[in-house]
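Subject: design request, 88 residues
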């Protein structure tokens, strides 16, 4: 799988420098460092994010007052905003 990210120049340079120092100046060092960073973040966040079997049940009815007033994209943004407020 390929993921693409965009970072501030300073953060990118620090990441590249640290990855090269740890894994060497060879091909694959950024990939190894990225895997390590993402795995670490996922482990750190896993106990903070609730386990959800059916995410639709979480928002069911919460946005009903907006039915017909907003587009599906606007509703999606509203649901994201509510989720972020509740679990951040």
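Subject: RE: design request

Done. Sequence follows.
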């Amino acid at each position: 799988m390929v993921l693409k990210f965009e970072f501030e120049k300073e953060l990118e340079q620090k990441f590249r420098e640290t990855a090269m120092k740890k894994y060497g100046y060879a091909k694959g060092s950024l990939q190894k460092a990225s895997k390590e960073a993402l795995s670490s973040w996922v482990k750190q966040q896993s106990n903070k994010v609730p386990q959800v079997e059916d995410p639709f049940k979480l928002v069911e009815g919460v946005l009903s007052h907006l039915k017909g007033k907003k587009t599906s994209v606007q509703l999606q943004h509203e649901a994201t905003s509510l989720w972020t407020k509740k679990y951040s």
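The two ends are 27 Å apart (CA to CA).
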